[in-house]
């Protein structure tokens, strides 16, 4: 049965970084790997947009299943974004959380927002001061981990792994479910 896989996690956990090695590990005649934000992110992004995009990707997954393909979407989603869809087992939705220790998230995001070797604490990301943005990601990840644990969803700690190693773990899970 073809499935719809959502690889979730906060900024800095490695969702985008695993996409290239995942495309190498999983045959493209059976899997499509997409970035959740591929269609663009509006200026005033909110949970309604995220739910709308989640439903869009589920519809894409249903279309691909008719062609005997599974879809893998890498991006931030929470189980509550599509709770009504998760109860429909015929859709074959699978959630995987990428996790990392708080200090790793902080380090990765500081690295991402450092320009010319300089980290400017006055910069903003999505309208928030950078330190607020980083702290919020760390807090949200801790909350998400609890939600994913309650649903018995796989959680992969990316703290000490390369994107290739994380992609191998994700691919192994997916191939196990597909066989």
Kindly summarize this structure in a few lines:
This protein is 44% helix and 18% strand.
| Spatial arrangement of strands, main beta sheet | 2-3-1-4-9
Helix coverage percent: 40-55%
Radius of gyration computed on alpha carbons: 16 Å
What average pLDDT do the residues reach? 90
Could you tell me the number of beta strands?
A: 9
For the record, the CATH architecture stands as 3-Layer(aba) Sandwich
SS element count, helices: 6
Ends: how far apart? 9 Å
CATH fold node name? Rossmann fold
> What number of domains?
1
CATH superfamily: P-loop containing nucleotide triphosphate hydrolases
Please provide the ordered H/E string of secondary-structure elements. EHEHEHEHEEEEHEH
Strand content: 15-25%
Which CATH class is shown? Alpha Beta
The poorly predicted ranges are: none
List the helices and strands and how they pair.
Layout: E1 4-8, H1 19-25, E2 31-35, H2 47-65, E3 70-74, H3 83-86, E4 93-99, H4 102-112, E5 114-115, E6 118-119, E7 124-125, E8 128-129, H5 130-150, E9 155-157, H6 163-178
Parallel strand pairs: 1-3, 1-4, 2-3, 4-9
Antiparallel strand pairs: 5-6, 7-8
